[in-house]
Amino acid sequence: MNPVVIMGHTKVRDFVECLGGGSLEEVFQVERLPIGADIHTMRVTKFKTNLLAAVLQSDLSVDAATRNALLPQVLRRGTRRQPDTADFMRSLDDLYGTSITADVAKKGERHLLLFGVGVVNDVYLDGGDEMLRKGFGILRDLMVEPAMEGSGLRADYVAQEEVNLRRRIESILDNKQAYAFRRCNEEMCRAERYAVSKLGRVEDIDAITPDSLADWHGKAIREYPMDIFAIGDIEHERAAELATEAFRGLARRPRSVGPASTQGPAPSSEPRRIVERMPVSQGHLVMGYRTGVTFASSDYPALLFANGVFGGYTHSKLFQNVRERASLAYFASSGIEQTKGLMWVNAGIDFEAFDTAVGIIEEQLDDVQRGAITESEMENTRRGLIRDIEMMRDQPSSLMDLALEGIVNSCPVTAENLKQRISQVSVGDVIRVARGIQLDTVYFLRNEEGSRDA
Amino acid sequence: MLEMGLDRSELLREEVAYTRLGCGLEVATLQKRGFAKKYAVLATRYGSIDTKFRIAGAVDPISTPEGIAHFLEHKLFEEEDGSIDDVFADLGAYSNAFTNYTMTGYLFSCVDNFWPAFDTLLDFVMRPHFTDENVEKEKGIIEQEIRMNEDSPDWQAANGLLRAMYRLHPVREEIAGTVDSVRRITAEMLYECYRTFYHPSNMTLLVVGDVSPSEVAHRASTRLDGRDFGPTPGVERIRPEEPRSVGARRVERRMTVSEPIVCFGYKDPSVGWLGQPLMHRIIGMEMLMHTLAGRSSALYNSLYAEGLIDASFDWDYDCEHDYGFAMFEGRSNSPDRLVERVAEGIDSFLGAGVDPDEFERTRRRVIGSMLRSFDSLEFIAYNFLTYHFRNMRLIESVDMARSIGPGEAEAVARELFSPDLLAVSVVTPDSAQPPADAEYPGDDEPEQEG
Q1: Does B103 contact chain A (CB < 8 Å)?
Q2: Which residues contact B407 (CB under 8 A, 6 or more apart)?
């Protein structure tokens, strides 16, 4: 039932990471549980599945990244109760295809370990809350009760997942846009922890043993701050009760983690320009900027606006000028990282169009900075931002993501509040914020032939 | 009064209301109560494979360049006074479109201003404006879209498989065409295709969201039924007679990738199905393939433990009216060994017969996945139309999954998983030495890509 291949009309939103999730009339109820974790619940009855999740937060560092990345991959292979992967998967099939996720993500210089379970809303089955109760049990098993072998995690799983992690890290090469994006970030943030990949480093994999990973797991469960989410047809009190019961006996002593974002070094007066070569059909351009504005800043809504006017939508300056007027690209858009305060532009262009494209892109930001913004660019951006926030209500994962952004930035923001702040942003605010955006690094991945400098 | 038909699934707790307008357009609404997002798609039965056709009364068939359906989709957004995207942006609506092998769809999603956006959708799709100048201008954009796909190894592996499997059927061609074929497209050709395939009687409008079905039908009727679309054009879609056997057993392409990406599959020898029988076939095969190669299967777990696959491994069965295939794809450091092991796995699976307990477990899983996918408006919209254009009803899929037995799918599988119907497409790292056994000629010369 999946589309095999589709060609689209536009592709503008890949890099727009700006809006996490949230709710309008619905808000999260938050409670500190005795197990040393916060539970966030939101009751929404329109979904056929309920989302249960737990998130552990770590500093993003070279030291921890590889172990953090390997851990969820090993944990999802099996549990104490169901040590064999096939048995574990069969037990999930039996529960109406209960889905599990176990992965890592990064927000600014915070590394997140995410564990999720999606269960069918009991209303569609036999009523009651059997699926919900079992769902919390699976979340617990997945996260804290792994398949063990002696004092270590199961050695065959660790060995296989070490190979798979290496393959996953190396496979970034296969997606040229993602590769160009990653290389731009590595170069731009080379002196900052943000350059560390969420998957860690290949050279750190071999040193990890089943015992050392089990120790790491124990430490993560004891010490990393933990947040539990339940979104769906769930009463808060019941969710808190089920979570407490499931995680009973956890001896947690959460430590505080470092700041989620740090100010990077001031960009040099001249942006760096990096050209790399590979046998590619298209030039992959990524331009990295520092915005000086983060999620916790009062200027955050104005940054969303600046990004929207510049390159976030089809009505934006980048789409209109790089694609529609100059026909240089199929996609040309901008997006922001809101915890670290970065912005990127990316476009797929002809190799020979590099200088022209960079010129047009710089002109567009320049226009935003000097206030060449039309009334309709402002209002269409406002409508687009508000629409995107409202649409989060239809997606539990987006709702959770906005809450996480608030947690990571120690700045809880509700969608309603964000909407209200967006409605108050003036063109003067956008210009002021745009003037703080500075180009840091221009990265271009191009073919092996052609001129040497670009 | 418009006559409304209703389909309801008690399991899903969803219903779809249908009506056909005087102009011939089918209108369907699936009301999602409580959802903020509203989603509308106007789609036509015209995709990348419809390059050759004959208009009723004409003697000569018309051949058009590959990629023309997709090109037309891009150009329909252009109005006399600019892009229709701007009108949607003014309304706070997000607009886009897609083209696949068999259909083209125009869509918008919004929270507010649904009705003005709805009117805009109906108006612009029914109002072509192609000029030589705007057609030329689009060629640079589409060339970059084609180049983007050329750099995507997953796309190349999948397209390579279709090229290997099909000797003549146009599904072997890229949806967007090639840089050369696109250069041959003219405004006149676009008008010809538009007149042939964009008559309302060839199209379906679908709305998913918290919108009243009768209002949707009435609004569409008010907007369109006064207009003169002329008579329904008679059109015969010309398809070559596709032989049973695959064109090439194995194709390979070198790209800058970290390890080989393989896409292999079996060409369905029994096509021509539509409606209920096709839906039975598709859902039955989905359940059989899950039992065979899903994450809980013995086969998947042994391939995974041996390191032949990783979490990227996936499979699918899909069948259109005149082509179909079962395929497997993923990253593997030993692609040919993987193909061999899957083929052996299929043999022993079918040899033993489908285990009834495992099939029941699959049934529960498939029902759960279908329930879950009905939380996504995008999933509903795309799959509803795909089903609808095959005379199938998406909303009945859960009920069918609940009642279907393994017998029919087993019979399909025994016919389909035959060694002579297997084709393999591999994208290999350009740094690697070519393996000694890189080519297995099929009945014809093997096709070498790249």
Answers
A1: no
A2: none
- Phi-psi region at B270: left, alpha or beta (left = phi > 0; alpha = psi -120 to 50): beta
pLDDT at A23 (0 to 100): 37
* Short-list B382, B377, B268, CA closest to B316: B268
Residue pLDDT, tens place only, A23-51: 345 789 999 999 999 999 999 999 999 99
Is A2 part of any domain? no
Instruction: Categorize the per-residue pLDDT at A5 as very low, low, confident or very high, splitting at 50, 70 and 90.
Output: very low
Q: Within 13 Å, how many C-alpha atoms sit on residue B223's CB side?
A: 23
Q: Which amino acid is located at B345 in the chain?
A: G
Could you read off the pLDDT of B142-197 as tens digits, one per residue?
A: 999 999 999 999 999 999 999 999 999 999 999 999 999 999 999 999 999 999 99
- Among B237, B265, B280, which residue terminates a domain? B237
Residue B449: per-residue pLDDT: 35
Residues of B in contact with A181 (CB under 8 A): none
Q: CB distance A3–B382 less than 8 Å?
A: yes
What's the pLDDT band for B135 if we cut at 50, 70, 90? very high
Nearest-angstrom CA–CA distance, A306 and A398: 22
Chain A residues in contact with B102 (beta carbon < 8 A): none
- Are A190 and A42 contained in the same domain? yes
Distance of alpha carbon B196 from alpha carbon B199, whole angstroms: 7
Number of alpha carbons in the 13 Å side-chain half-sphere of residue A133: 6
What pLDDT, on a 0 to 100 scale, did the predictor assign at position B187? 98
Residue-wise pLDDT for B233-292, tens only, equals 899 999 999 999 999 999 999 999 999 999 999 999 999 999 999 999 999 999 999 999
pLDDT band for position A3 (50/70/90)?
very low
Does one domain contain both A209 and A110? Answer: yes
DSSP letter, residue A357: H
Residue A16 lies in a domain: no
Tell me whether residue A32 is in a domain. Answer: no
Per annotation, catalytic residue among B14, B73, B242, B252: B73
Task: Note whether B296 and B408 are same-domain residues.
Answer: yes
Task: Please check whether residue A175 touches B, CB under 8 A.
Answer: yes
B339 pLDDT exceeds 50?
Answer: yes
Q: Which domain holds residue A239?
A: 37-246
Check if B73 contacts A (Cβ < 8 Å): yes
Q: Which residue of B has its CA nearest to A122?
A: B368
**Residue that terminates a domain, selected from B207, B237, B267:** B237
pLDDT at A309 over 70: yes
Tell me whether residue B245 is in a domain: no
- What DSSP assignment string belongs to A118-166? EEE-GGGTTSTTHHHHHHHHHHHHHHH-B-EETTEE-HHHHHHHHHHHH
Would residue B449 count as lying in a domain? no
How much is the ipTM here? 0.92
Q: How many domains does chain A have?
A: 2
B439 is catalytic: no
C-alpha A90/C-alpha B358 separation (Å) is 9
- Interval A134-156: pLDDT, tens: 999 999 999 999 999 999 999 99
Residues of B with Cβ-Cβ distance to A390 under 8 angstroms: 36-37, 111
In a shared domain, residues A210 and A69:
yes
> What's the mean pLDDT when you consider all of chain A?
92
Cα–Cα distance between B397 and B280 in angstroms, integer?
9
Residues in A 193-232 with any Cβ partner in B closer than 8 A:
none
What is the reported pLDDT for A22?
35
CA–CA separation, B301 vs B305, rounded Å? 6
- Could you list the residue range(s) of the whole structural domain that residue B47 is in? 5-237
Mutant choice from B32, B41, B95, B147 vs A, greatest count of A C-beta within 10 A: B147
Distance from CA of A224 to the nearest CA of B (A): 27
pLDDT at A204 over 70: yes
CB contact under 8 A, B151 and A47: no
Does A155 touch chain B if contact means CB atoms closer than 8 Å?
no
Distance from CA of A295 to the nearest CA of B (A): 24
